[in-house]
Specification:
The structure is a homodimer.
Chain A: E1 3-7, H1 16-28, E2 34-38, H2 44-48, H3 59-63, H4 69-72, E3 74-75, E4 81-84, H5 93-97, H6 106-112, E5 122-126, H7 133-141, E6 144-150, H8 153-172, E7 178-185, H9 192-205, H10 218-222, H11 230-233, H12 238-252
Parallel strand pairs in A: 1-5, 1-6, 2-4, 2-5, 6-7
Antiparallel strand pairs in A: 3-4
Bound molecules: adenosine-5'-triphosphate (2 copies) and magnesium ion (MG) (2 copies).
Chain lengths: 253, 253
C-alpha cells in the first residue's frame, strides 16, 4: 500500500521543501520507489530537484484531470526518485476552485484514478506555507502528515492551529489521516531558544515527536542552487546524514 | 502624507514579521507615529508585539467595514507605535471574497474612509507568505513596498515572480506603488552562499538594494517569545542596531 505523506506547515520557511527533497532521496537510496508532488506555486521542490516548472502543466494538469500520473511523471538524478513538476498557475487555483463542489478533493481523485500509484512505495507532497485549498487537497489525499517544526517561537505558536486543521480534515474528508510525526528542523543545540522549543514540544507531543533532529547545516541550503538533493552534493555532511536517519524513522513507523 | 509600506514576499520565513515589528519600533523611537497592520492570518506580528489576536475582530473588522482605524487601534509597549491586531479568520477571506467585485481594494477603501490615517507618519503592513488576495490588498493600499530577502537560493529564485506581481498591481490598481527597497535578512557574511546572493542581487537591482543588511542574530528570534521588539529585549544587540540603521535608510529615501 502506497504511503502518501503530506509535508505541511503554514509557517513559512520551516524546511518543508528541503524535507521533501532530502527525505525523498534518502528513501530512494533504501531501494524504495518514491514520487514527489510539488503542490506549492513557488515550485521550489521542482527547481531543487533540477527540474523545470511550468505555468499550467505538471501538477495543474494532474489536478484538473488533463493527464494522469503516468503521463506527467519525470525522472530525477536520484535512482528511484520521480517527480511531477510544480505549476506557477496553482496560485490562481484557490480562486478558480473556490466555488466548485468537492474543491478539497481534486488531488485525492486524481491519485485514485487508474492505477497511477502502483509501484510507488512513498508519495511525498510539498505544501505551500498556508492552510488554503492546496494544503487541504494534500491532506485529503494523504495517508499521513509529516510536520517539520523550526526550533523558533513563531513556529511553535502556529503548531496548535495546524493540528486543528488536520483534525478538521480528518473529521470532514479523510478519517484515516494520521500524524506520522513532528520533527525539529534547523536545530542548533547551542541556542537556548532551540532547547526550550525542543523541551516544550516533547512535553506536549510525547510519542509524535520524532527522535531525529535536522541540524542547521549550510550544505542543505547550498544544494538547491545545484538542483540536487544534499546527498548528491555532499553525502557526508550533517544535513545528509540527518535526513537518512529521518528516512529510517519514517520507514519503521 | 502618510507613507504606507507593505512588507511583502511570498517566500516563507524571510523576516517579514520581524521587519514590521523592529522597523516599526525603530521608526517610533525617531519621534515618528507608526501604525502596524497585521494582514497575516498567522497573526505573528500581533503576538510579537505582545497583543492578543482574534478570530474575526481586528483587521477583519477593518476590511469588512465593521469598524474604522480609530476604533480598532491599540497601543504597544513602544511609545509612538500602535497596531491593529490580526484575525485568524483572514485565512477564510480569500474564498469569501473570491467572487466579490473590487475584492482587491478592501484595505485601500478602509484606509481611505474618514481621516483614519491622520497623525501617522508610517503604516507598516505585515503580509502572509503568498501572492493571494491579502497580499494584493496590501499592495493596492500601499504607497511603497519593502522586500526582505533572505540570503538563500530559493528566496532569490522567487524575487522575479514577486517583482512581476508588483508590476501587475501597479498597472491594474495602484499606479503610484513604488519599490522602497530590497534588503538582505539573516545575512551571515562568513557563508559563501550569502555573499553570492548579495553579489547577485546587487548586480541585478542596483539602486533598489538597500545598504543595510540585517544580520542573523539570535536575539531577534528570542524577542517575540517576550512579546517585545528586540530593542526592548536587548537594545545593544546586532539585530536591534541593524533595524535602527534600516529605519534611517527608510526615512531618508
Ligand atoms: N536544516 C537546514 N539548515 C540550513 N538551512 C536550511 C535547513 N533546512 C532548510 N534550509 C534553508 O532554509 C530556507 C527555508 O527552507 P525551505 O525553503 O525548505 O522551507 P519551506 O518550509 O519549504 O519554505 P516555504 O514556507 O517558503 O515553502 C531555504 O533557503 C533552505 O535552503
Ligand atoms: N535576522 C534574523 N536573525 C535570526 N533570526 C531571525 C532573523 N529574522 C527573523 N528571524 C527568525 O526567523 C523566523 C522567520 O522570521 P519571520 O517569522 O519574521 O519571517 P516571515 O517572513 O514573517 O515568515 P512567514 O512567511 O511565515 O510570515 C522567525 O522565527 C524569526 O524569529
Ligand atoms: Mg517550500
Ligand atoms: Mg510573518
Amino acid at each position: 500500500m502506497t504511503r502518501i505523506l503530506a509535508v505541511a506547515n503554514q509557517k513559512g520557511g520551516v524546511g518543508k521543501t528541503t524535507t521533501v527533497i532530502n527525505l525523498g532521496a534518502s528513501l530512494a537510496v533504501n531501494d524504495l520507489d518514491v514520487l514527489v508532488l510539488d503542490m506549492d506555486p513557488q515550485t521550489n521542490a521542482t527547481s531543487g530537484l533540477g527540474l523545470e516548472d511550468t505555468e499550467r502543466g505538471g501538477m495543474m494538469d494532474l489536478l484538473t484531470g488533463e493527464a494522469t500520473v503516468g503521463k506527467l511523471v519525470v525522472e530525477t538524478e536520484v535512482e528511484g526518485l520521480w517527480a511531477i513538476p510544480g505549476s506557477r498557475g496553482l496560485a490562481g487555483l484557490e480562486i478558480e476552485l473556490a466555488s466548485e463542489s468537492g474543491r478539497e478533493s481534486f488531488l485525492a481523485h486524481a491519485l485514485r484514478e487508474s492505477e497511477s500509484l502502483n509501484g510507488y512505495d512513498y508519495v511525498l507532497v510539498d505544501c505551500p506555507p498556508s492552510l488554503g485549498l492546496l494544503t487541504v487537497n494534500s491532506l485529503v489525499a494523504a495517508t499521513g502528515v509529516l510536520l517539520p517544526l523550526q526550533s523558533e517561537y513563531y513556529a511553535l505558536e502556529g503548531l496548535s492551529h495546524l493540528m486543528d486543521t488536520i483534525g478538521e480534515v480528518r473529521r470532514l474528508w479523510n478519517s484515516d489521516l494520521r500524524i506520522e510525526g513532528v520533527f525539529l528542523t534547523m536545530y542548533d543545540g547551542r541556542l537556548r531558544l532551540a532547547r526550550e522549543v525542543a523541551d516544550n514540544v516533547a512535553s506536549h507531543l510525547g510519542e509524535s515527536l520524532m527522535e531525529t533532529k535536522i541540524p542547521r547545516n549550510v550544505r542543505l541550503s547550498e544544494a538547491p542552487s545545484y538542483g540536487k538533493p544534499a546527498m548528491l552534493y555532499d553525502a557526508y555532511c550533517a544535513g545528509s546524514k540527518s535526513y537518512l536517519r529521518l528516512a529510517g524513522e519514517v520507514m519503521s513507523r
